[in-house]
Design a protein that fits this description.
With 420 residues, the protein is α/β, with parallel strands linked by helices. Strand 11 and strand 12 form a beta hairpin. The chain has 14 helices and 15 strands. InterPro entries: Calcineurin-like_PHP, DNA_Repair-Maintenance_Comp, Metallo-depent_PP-like, Mre11_N, Pesterase_YhaO. This is Metallophosphoesterase.
Length: 420
Amino acid sequence: MKFLHAADLHLDSPLRGLARYEEAPVNDLRGATRAAFNNLVELAIEEKVAFVLLAGDLYDGTWQDFSTAIFLATKLGELDRAGIRVFGVLGNHDAQSKLTKALEKPKNLTLFPANKPQTEFLDDLEVAIHGQSFSQQHVEENLAVGFPAAKPGMFNIGLLHTSLDGREGHAAYAPCKLDDLRARDYQYWALGHVHAREEVSTEPWIVFPGSLQGRHVRETGPKGCCLVSVEDGRVKSVEHRTLDVVRWANCDVDLGTVSSMQGVLDSASKALQEVLDSAEDRIVATRIRFVGSSPVHAELQGRTQWLRQKLMELFAEVHGEGLWIEKVVVATISKLDREAVLTGDGALGGLAKSIMEVKEVPSAVRGLDTVLTAFREKLPAEVFLAEDGLRIDDQEVIARLIQEAKELLLGKLLETGSES
């Protein structure tokens, strides 16, 4: 017996941040979630799986294009005609979505209720699937502890949308401990909510398949689903199958030995080509980050847009719209020895150490709370709603911004020191 486990489809995600980029391949990016789900349907039919599990977030929050629900119903109908049943739970985005209520439920789709866990028995396969949906966006209670014990003599699956014991970048929804899942004595836990693929455990199998399609630069690398094979009531194998059609990637370019702008372009071109090669003919959306202690540090300042346009032009000649550079970030520092300054006893070293000793929490930066409040009041809402927008209420984001500010200040300080 085989089945597919997928999660976090976010069908027709609006990708609001794309509005800022006139040259972005908007149609390809916006159609990527549908194309990835179509790949899932084709894979299910090709592998002749017994059923498909969808572990939450079929839709994307308040997005209200009802053609999304029609598309999902159409694709589930294809699975129905192939004799493949689908079992799903609603996640935090589904609970927020009007499309969930508008869905004309295909006969082969079983959505688990939100009021309590329910068990579906597939007697012909000797399988018991236990699941519970979200009733609202913010579910803070531990749903896992309410799941029933395993049904003896059957292959038991738990279907749950959860942050488990916490994952970076994901809200703590339906949190639970690993022991809570193991205590149910199931053979497989099909989880959703975390967009990075993770095999949490193999005894028993507890798996986040990751999102089906990356939607922005925080969701990089191959995306897809899990193909699970079962034999004699035990998991025989769990294979990741890549289904994404657009590959998001971070591209770091070390300029430590580069001494000219032509060298910068050459180094970036080589790194971008490697990213394209690894994407296996998919469209690549990437953020380039120049790093290292570089002789061209000063020359790079203020030239991010020029670098982006130049690299886009170079690759357009060969790859057409196969590569899109979302952003160029200059994170280099001057060639002046960083460690020598930080360990020095002079005024420059003292100032550098003072900068780097600042903790990555808002309270450590005097006046930061006031500045963030002013940002929230003065900037348009779109700045915060965009996929890669400012998440100034997220402590992890604030910590990263403070760290980047420290590095920027240190770089400026070293640049000044090298000129004195």
